[in-house]
Description:
The structure holds two protein chains of two kinds. Chain A has a domain at 92-276: MetI-like fold (Orthogonal Bundle). Chain A is 78% helix and 0% strand. Chain A has helices at 2-29, 34-39, 45-54, 61-73, 87-122, 127-141, 144-158, 174-208, 211-218, 223-251, 255-260, 266-275, 279-307, 309-314. The longest helix of chain A is centred in the first third of the chain and has 36 residues, at 87-122. Chain B is 31% helix and 25% strand. Chain B is built from 19 helices and 25 strands. In chain B, 48% of the residues are buried. Chain B has a domain at 317-405 and 485-615: Rossmann fold. By secondary structure, chain B is of the alpha/beta class. Chain B is globular, with a radius of gyration of 26 Å. The longest helix of chain B has 18 residues, at 203-220. The A-B interface holds A 3, 6-7, 10, 125-126, 210-212, 214-223, 225, 230, 233-234, 307-310, 313 and B 71, 73, 77, 97, 101-106, 109-110, 112, 114, 117-124, 131-132, 135-136, 167, 169-170, 180, 183-184, 186, 331-332.
Amino acid sequence: MYTYIGKRLLLAIPTLIIISIFAFSLQKLLPGDPILAMAGEERDPQVLEFLRDKYRLNDPIIYQYFYWVGGVLRGDLGISLRTNQPVLTLIAQKLPVTIQLAVMAMAFALAIGVPIGILAAVKKNTMVDYIANIVALSGLSVPNFWMGIMLILLVSVKLGLLPASGYEPFFSNPLRSLQTMLMPAFVIGLALAATLMRHTRSSMLTVLSADYIRTARAKGVSERAVILEHSFRNALLPIITLTALLFGELLAGAVLTEQIFTIPGFGKLIVDAVFNRDYAVVQGVVLCTGAGFILMNLVADVLYILLNPRMRAAL
Amino acid sequence: MANPMTASNPVPDIAGMKPILSVEGLTTSFLVDGEWKSVVRDVSFDVMPGETVAIVGESGSGKSVTSLSIMRLLAKATSRIEGKISLNGKNLLQLSDRQMRDVRGNDVAMIFQEPMTSLNPIFTIGRQISEALTCHSSLSPVEARAETIRLLEKVRIPNASSRFDEYPHQFSGGMRQRVMIAMALASRPKLLIADEPTTALDVTIQGQILDLIKVLQEEEGMAVLFITHDMGVVAEVADRTIVMYRGEAVESGSTDDVFHRGQHPYTRALLSAVPRLGSMMDQHWPLRFPIVDIKTGQSSIPTEVADTVDKRKTPILEVKNLTTRFDIRSGLFGRKSGAIHAVENISFDLAQGETLSLVGESGCGKSTTGRSITRLVQPTSGEVVLDGYNVLTLDPTALRNMRKSIQMIFQDPFASLNPRMSVGATISEPFIVHKLGTHKQAQDKAVDLLERVGLSADMLRRYPHEFSGGQRQRIAIARALSLDPKVIVADESVSALDVSIKAQVVNLLLDLQENFNLAFLFISHDMAVVERVSHRVAVMYLGEIVEIGPRAAVFDSPQHAYTKTLMAAVPVPDPARRSMKRNVAVNELKSPVRPVGYVPPVRDYKEVSKGHFVQI
């Protein structure tokens, strides 16, 4: 098992290198000059030259890449061109927000999507199944921003139950923090729930027609145990992979939802950084998101192995 | 027979007893596209305590649906069961779902065809067997564990207690079927329904499992309802036999009566199509199967194949010291940790117009041999000369040309045809990719081939899903013939087919051999079919040829111990063998996986008669 994790971590290195090259080349591919953006109205050539020198923009591009990577390896992601804060500090500020939002959204998605998926599979081709499918399809097709605005109108403006926007760090005021995150997490979670529901349904249908389910029924196991133990635990395997991938995507931030509920997460950070040509931040966030995604993939594979005795034995 | 067989207490005394299972007027229908379609019609039979009744039939005869109807295991929404099924006096069709659950696994238990997929992969086998105990009684986990180990011992699984916590994938197919049987026996059912319990198993393992069922039946005094397509198995196990055909029970009676005095034309057709090991004693050449008309019951006289083998010419295929190994890698950097010695130093040749059969059980390397010769897998060493090509040294272009001389027909006709290609496109594709002529010529060739394999030209535009298994296999044969190959590798080509279809396809292959002077490398595990079609036979075991020689020599006087074991294990459709036991030890097929640095022993062969070689 540890060999396997070690092997996977080794394999992550080339992936991270490719991500870093990709992230770094963004600044050369994107139009616009960060120094011009920084200097603002004053375009004194001397100032520009000084700034270029300071940020080592005059060195050959390959040198620039290695300066940056060298910094990254020492835990230094560079300084934001815009705010002069270390990129690491910025990420450290936003990451907890994004993780909290991702965890809560995923909780909603799993709590809604998986049970409905199981139900739809068990009641295949009945009214329950059709309604579940229609709801799932609507969940997928309704845009997040529309759902977000409608929720704010209904829950915050009309009923006054939850705050319409804002953010409160979890450890300073947990209750308030949960309240502010509830609606955005629900909006994101609902869309993911639809995807999860479809996958749970099809995975359950495959398992329910397996020979070993017939065996379980033939021994007289109760229908509840047939579905929840014999079937669901097998159907869970592909769902875990999907959940981890969706979670990885959430770590990149949810730009629209964050905007609507004014949440200071990764999405907002990266959009601001791109508009300001704040390359150090863009690079840092892309690298960080990439690493997060690789990590989630690894978690998914490890869970998959832990739940699957056959894979466990192969290690 | 080579192995000693012992007779034991035969037909139980059933006079004056009440049937344990009584089925009256069973009709089962499925909802297909909004219409109820009956797949089992008006079937009635009884099973007495301690008795074995076999339901025999081909695919689609409704035999499995009958057994699933008794268990009420069919999907409720899409099936309807009518009639009366009483078990121990209880009418099963009137029970509630809850009550039925108590019957299942308690009064009646079932084992299935596919031991590989019938156990839940994520639970230990111990847990799965104890579940059968605990869901019907209030046994404590400790008691259930002890009882489970007792059951595992009962089905003769070695080291039962240490295997309690193992998962299904750690067991071989035969051992899994033993686990299934242990599970079925958990609550001492009065009736065991065995739905093709040995069909997916190798023949020596099949012998062990049939024996086990017989022994357990005596020990537990339970009745067995045995569902099978294999007349040989029926003859060996059943007191009484019911023949099903297209949803109806067309014949029933004592197994002896059904086999020797069958009334219905279908019964006779089925029996005449069954290959019988040992039926070729006095034949010199391969023999076609007699085909019985299902309506009239009239049988055609089987004709012998003309002598197609020309021994004077150089062989079309020569294989010398062929070895194919697959590396097994593991660890952090994928170091080689062993190898599967799939094919180990085998040599044989094949003359134009000749059929050489490779027989053996799973893992013996017979399929890998076929794939190595066609270079679908890369052999490790050796020499293969096919029609002038030195196969193992060909560059990609020459390899493509070589494939014109050798073609394959595979086992599963449902998987070996591309579902999105029409029959015409399928058959003419090899002709077109090898640029042998225009599209018009390819089309004409396809029409000609379709007619030669017994289909009609108007089927050209249709797609594989519109055809039955036998028809699809004919299409696959036509495709193989479209390049006018000299050699055809038939890899279990008739194994998946029903007996009557199998007989027809075998006859077709023999016709084609006569007409085109084809050489066949016939790969099969079915000894009886092999005996029928071969000129020569090679028996493979753990990647090696242990015995090779003319068909008559190998079958009439098998020399190698493994050949003898294999032949003794084949069920023969002769009811006189009822209640015979093979008394074979519980063992599993050995694995050809070897550690790094393994040096295979040097083998010597002894010529026992002309052309008949045996490994010593």
